[in-house]
Amino acid sequence: MSNDQSAMNELHWLIDMVQTIEVGLVVLDRDYNIQLWNGFMENHSGVSPNSIKGGNLFEKFPDLPGDWLKQKMESVFLLKNRTFISWEQRPYVFKFKNYRPVTGRADFMFQNVTLLPLASLTGEITHISIIVYDVTDIAVNKLQLKSANEQLEELSQTDGLTQLHNRRYWQICMEKEFERHSRYGDTSTLVMIDIDHFKQVNDKYGHPAGDKVIQHIAYLLKQSLRETDCAGRYGGEEFAVVLSKTTAEEALHFTERLRKRIEESEIAFENRLIKVTVSLGINDLSEQLDNSSNWLSGADKALYIAKQQGRNKSIVFK
Ligand SMILES: Nc1nc2c(ncn2[C@@H]2O[C@H](COP(=O)(O)OP(=O)(O)OP(=O)(O)O)[C@@H](O)[C@H]2O)c(=O)[nH]1
């Protein structure tokens, strides 16, 4: 075979490969007119190379992010350097439908795109190549993993019954607040809340009714809070709240308002109306405390006194 023939063969093979490769290949001239449009691009856009050749890319595809993409391409022409566009930066450049069965949950093909400067024989950058990789599988997997992790994180911080913080996460919140106090002297107040005679509720109405009562108290509690407050389900029928930037006196207003709302409300369960009350223990940070456990145990002691004094009461620890 002559050298010419062999070169012709190579060219033929290359063209065949360019046409069939599972990667999008486009070549544009300096004015963004399309010079090459391979099989991948044809299959996914539905536009054949013959009908598009010579046409302006942005006129043929008005959906493209024109200004943004031109800016990227201009810098490729100018700096003679390739540029990458990741799906994480922009999910896709060409809006192609996703037909893959495995990743059926994505409506559009996620793409990584490379913009490659093409030099003429004289070394001038006269053209640019757009290389489009279908990364839908990778992107969907990564997004699913991210969402699963977020759900897990959410689950591990949240109490399933009440959607308040769970005990562990609330404790972290409380310790952070205590540290802020130790460092900056910020005042905060801790409140422990316990439903009165809750065992009787379970015994009289059943456990599901008890659960509904717990949810109801959590709902009223959430409604009474500010953004910066941190509330958690501390135990079965016990809740704990850190009221930030709040003195004991201010906290007493908060607890009395909440206590009265609970006392006045009724919980409907299977055609019956349940009424409950709560007892609350309050402890602020006005005394010098060695650690956050002392802060908590002070509120717990105040709660105990509230119970002893007949329940349905708020008591400040002294
Ligand atoms: N329904 C329901 N009951 C729970 C849950 N967690 C704990 N309990 C019940 O809550 C009750 C708590 O009872 P006790 O700690 O004896 O106190 P109490 O009856 O509330 O009485 P005082 O606190 O002294 O007013 C127990 O019977 C637990 O079984 C829960 O998630 N759902």
UniProtKB/TrEMBL annotation:
It comes from Shewanella algicola. PANTHER family: DIGUANYLATE CYCLASE DGCM-RELATED, REGULATORY COMPONENTS OF SENSORY TRANSDUCTION SYSTEM. It is an enzyme of class 2 (transferase). CDD domains: GGDEF. PROSITE patterns: GGDEF (PS50887). GO terms for cellular component: plasma membrane. Gene3D superfamilies: 3.30.70.270, PAS domain. GO terms for molecular function: diguanylate cyclase activity. InterPro entries: Diguanylate_Cyclase (IPR050469), GGDEF_dom (IPR000160), Nucleotide_cyclase (IPR029787), PAS-like_dom_sf (IPR035965), Rev_trsase/Diguanyl_cyclase (IPR043128). Residues 186-318 form the GGDEF domain. Its cofactor is Mg(2+). Its EC number is 2.7.7.65. NCBIfam families: GGDEF. GO terms for biological process: cell adhesion involved in single-species biofilm formation; negative regulation of bacterial-type flagellum-dependent cell motility. This is diguanylate cyclase. It catalyses: 2 GTP = 3',3'-c-di-GMP + 2 diphosphate.
